[in-house]
Amino acid sequence: MSIKIANTQYDVIDLIKNRWSPRSFSTKDISAATLETILEAGSWAPSANNTQPWRFIYALRGTPGFDKLLATLAQGNQPWAKNAAALVATVGIRETPDTQQKNHYFMHDVGMATSFMLLQALNMEIYAHVMAGFNKQQFAETAGLGANEEAVSIVALGYIDSAEKLEEPYKTRELTARSRNPIATIAAHLD
């Protein structure tokens, strides 16, 4: 099993230092109640004007819904994502339903909800890998998305397993150390 703890410049909380995106998942299942706990965590994310412009469409491994979500993934994601215990699609709502006002922040808010789910999952020793590599049109048709909805990502969730069981190039990616740009290159103090 490969656990990649971030080597941070500052004293970041362990939950963030320990979060990473594995591709090697064990055969251990996630219960519906556990998955619903993770989804509820996402629902408590902040959003512009508390519009909560998101929906989560999910399926557990071994179900027809899982196979449908898996089929929408890019060919590079399918070989390892098939072993996840659950797949969760994040969907953004472009306009506020009651006022039909365009929500310019829906993608940001969906990202916030996704991050809350990832941290809740890790707190429960469940790892997540967020994917943008999927066919949005195929997913929209499969899930019956409305004209006001946009697929944002698909998240693979599961208990971590050994990197050794992965084929290349996934095994090397699993074992490569994590890195981030230094704070000095992404943040600037405004006088």
UniProtKB/TrEMBL annotation:
Q: Where is the Nitroreductase domain?
A: 16-58, 73-159
Q: Which GO terms describe its molecular function?
A: oxidoreductase activity
- Lineage: superkingdom: Bacteria
Q: Name one Pfam family in it.
A: Nitroreductase
Q: Which Gene3D superfamilies match?
A: NADH Oxidase
For this UniProt record, give its keywords in alphabetical order, as a comma-separated list. Oxidoreductase
Q: Which family does it belong to?
A: Belongs to the nitroreductase family.
- State what protein this is by name: Nitroreductase
Protein source organism: Chitinophaga pinensis (strain ATCC 43595 / DSM 2588 / LMG 13176 / NBRC 15968 / NCIMB 11800 / UQM 2034)
